[in-house]
Design goal:
Shape: globular
Number of domains: 2
Helix content: 40-55%
Number of helices: 12
CATH architecture of the largest domain: 3-Layer(aba) Sandwich
CATH topology of the largest domain: Rossmann fold
Strand order of the largest sheet: 2-1-3-4-5
CATH class of the largest domain: Alpha Beta
Strand content: 5-15%
Structural class: alpha/beta
Distance between the termini: 23 Å
Largest sheet: 5 strands, parallel
Number of strands: 5
Order of helices and strands: EHEHEHEHEHHHHHHHH
CATH superfamily of the largest domain: Response regulator
């Protein structure tokens, strides 16, 4: 199944016609309706238009990737720069495609992404692998550093990897922004990290650890609405 999320009829029409007969196709026109539809889907490829409101800063897209791990997201109309592709990879996006991607190329992208492969330029993939290699070589091989995190620190981690700012994390947990900064500093020291990007790349290990330890929900039991 393919889901096309775009506020532009021309984009939806192009993708609909390019994939006609190959896949069952659904459409949505904004992030709010996309989030609702995703609650009822499994193993779907979602093409998200980069020009749609709320997609540009990657936080909402990052949040969707984290919440719906069974879904493969691809960004349509992403800037053709190395930085933009790396931002997509760090957000958990599986591929980037042009707005006017030729039908044959689009079908190839769908085939690759559906088999859990990535659809990016070789340069972007090489840079991302170098980044991952650095992280792996700089991190301890055991889970000791992750286990050293407190419940509160794991709550901060869980919010941080959705793309939430320190202010938003503080509001969700009922603590000051200064306290959030202190927690993040302690987390970085314990894990041997230097920046938020590195935390994103460790998300699977960190989240699985949080689930095992059954970290208490944040006050209110849910993320701020702008992060969902």
């Amino acid at each position: 199944m393919i889901l096309i999320a775009s506020s532009r009829e021309s984009v939806r029409r192009h993708y609909r016609e390019a994939l006609k007969g190959a896949e069952q196709i659904l459409e949505t026109t904004d992030l709010e309706s996309l989030a609702q539809v995703l609650e009822h889907l499994q193993s779907t490829i979602v093409f998200v238009d980069a020009a749609m409101d709320g997609v540009g800063d990657f936080r909402r897209l990052r949040s969707l990737c984290v919440q719906h791990r069974q879904i493969a997201f691809a960004l349509v109309g992403c800037d053709k720069t190395l930085k933009a592709e790396l931002d997509c990879l760090r957000a958990g996006v599986r591929g980037v495609v042009a707005v006017d991607c030729p039908p044959e190329m689009l079908r190839k992208a769908v085939a690759k992404i559906s088999h859990r492969e990535l659809w990016f330029s070789r340069k972007a993939l090489a840079s991302f692998l170098e980044e991952l290699g650095f992280l792996r070589s700089s991190q301890p091989s055991s889970e000791v550093s992750v286990q050293s995190l407190s419940d509160r620190e794991l709550q901060v981690v869980r919010l941080t990897i959705t793309g939430a700012s320190n202010k938003e994390i503080g509001a969700s947990l009922g603590i000051t922004e200064r306290t959030v900064k202190a927690h993040i500093s302690h987390i970085f020291n314990k894990l041997g990290l230097r920046q938020r990007t590195e935390l994103f790349l460790l998300e699977e290990r960190l989240l699985s650890n949080a689930l095992v330890r059954q970290v208490p929900e944040e006050p209110g039991g849910e993320l701020p609405r702008q992060l969902i």
